Amino acid sequence: MSTNNGFYLFKSSSDANSLRVLDSGPWYFAGKLIILQKWHEGIQFSKVKLSKVPVWVKLYNVPLNLWTIEGLSYAASAVGTPLYLDDATESRSRINYARVCTEISAENDIPENFDLDVGKGRIYSIDVQVPWKPPSCAICKEFGHSINNCNKVLRKVWVPKDTKMFLLPPQCVSLLLNKLKLSPFLP
């Protein structure tokens, strides 16, 4: 069911199913993040300013000894706040990259790679890939729009100059041309 201000209400068959859906996010529809929240009495339907959002982050070249929840959380913390691992990462059924749901901030850039110091002089270079990231604004420090669509940015707008055209009588034209030492161009 939809409301008149862009919000949707979903009804679930059971509380267990609702919790499964809420815990399985983040959810995206047509490339847009959907914020799901459990209904409660007095809930306010208002758009929130998103300064942090959860995204899936792929981490490459993570050493096998760090393929634990603690180790991958440590690695993902270089990008944001780690939330949870996907099933293939947690079960180690795919080890060419680790996929971690990570909360990122609009205030920080996501690195393409970073050095991970695991102690004893061992440093690993970890490559980062974020398959999808919502647009963010460097001015507002929020997700949901880019700087090109920011209401806080002053835009230069071209306004045509108001020029007035008028005709001079022939005697004024010749006086003006003489004063400027120009000759009239006549066909």
TrEMBL record:
Domain spans labelled DUF4283: 4-46
Pfam family, one: DUF4283
InterPro entries referenced in this protein's UniProt entry, alphabetically: At4g02000-like, DUF4283
The protein's name in its UniProt record: DUF4283 domain-containing protein
Source organism: Liquidambar formosana
